[in-house]
Predict the structure.
Amino acid sequence: MDSNQLPTSQSIARQVQIYLEGASGKKPLVPTNLTDLEREAKKRMSPKGYGYMAGGAGEESTITRNREAFENWKIVPRMLQDVSTRDITTDLFGKTLKAPFLLAPIGVLDLAYKNGDLLTAKAAANTGIPMIFSNQASYSMEQMAGLMGNNPKWFQLYWSKSNRLVESLIKRAENSGCEAIVLTLDTTLLGWRLRDLDLAYLPFLEGNGIGQYTSDPVFKELMKLDLPEDPNAPKRRVTLQSIATLIKLAQNYPGSFFKNLTSGEPIKAVQTFINIYSRPNLTFEDLPFLRKLTKLPILLKGVLHPEDAIKACEYGIDGIIVSNHGGRQVNGAVSTFEVLPEIVNAVGHKVPVLMDSGIRTGSDIFKALALGAKAVLLGRTYCYGLAIAGQKGVEEVIQNTIADFELTMGLAGCKAVNEITSGHLKKVN
């Protein structure tokens, strides 16, 4: 095969680009050091926006554990393996991915940068990396898909209390060219997130992150229904802050600002969203309903126990994503990396297993693949790139991640993804 057809020199090209531009006095748009990346992003974001993106549940021990778990395994490089050409592509559901990672679904990307969902879609298209559209995006999947052309895209589904809405979202995802459905399981209740609570901030109350809903015909029908008032809800007070929130809501909601300000429709949309958003009584027995709705591959995201993975296979699920929601839902939960081998062993080769939560570097990706993951999801790092430099920031984070992974793979003695095995790792703790 012609080596030009393979992404064999992306790492070298990226390094050369950075060094040559440096010789002309130009540094990268985003830091390659991930601590600096987050620090710089924090400067660009509002305290509320950064708290929502960076924060986790409780004392955030799960976030810490997600990172620490990778240090329990060390890479054992092999020498004299001829890694002069390197192929980092991987096959998933009959498609060839440019690299073994996708952009994880992250809601309310506008908190990082204006039009964040749309800019991220453009960056994914320009780099050829699949994007998983968030169910909590501020723009519709149709708008994002329109910017991506034939580039790979998936859709994340939050199963609401309305099965009609679920069906509508699935059909829209199919019509938008999405190639898989990612059902997120771990947000049937909202985690106890101290940063958001201390700031008393939830972006959805300002109309952020509900673009998939307000663009949906079934949701618009649900908005017309009279919702019962919660007798335990606190009485709303008119304050300067409540007026400011109403103004932001009118600005964020589709349509004319002045119409939104006077019609009450944005408030109705938020009330409807809050009323139907989560479904705590969801069980495995509901999965056949979803299976009947689509022929697309269905992956369950949020699996942390091997018995749940086995049961998912029994219900005909096509893939597993080992995830703890980036540590945002349960404080003190197991890390995804430490349970990954158990889940891979439990499902065998029945379905592909992916992983997120804690992935930051090329070596993280290498380790995950070595322990059986087919691919991983990249989350906060691309969000931080977005906060720093918009679309170009996301593209640079993706380029850096590809280069880091390719170099790690080659220096470990592997010239292709399928050569990465557990034999390249040593457990030290």
Summary: The two ends are 42 Å apart (CA to CA). The first helix runs from residue 10 to 23. The longest strand covers residues 298-303. The CA atoms of residues 144 and 362 lie 27 Å apart.
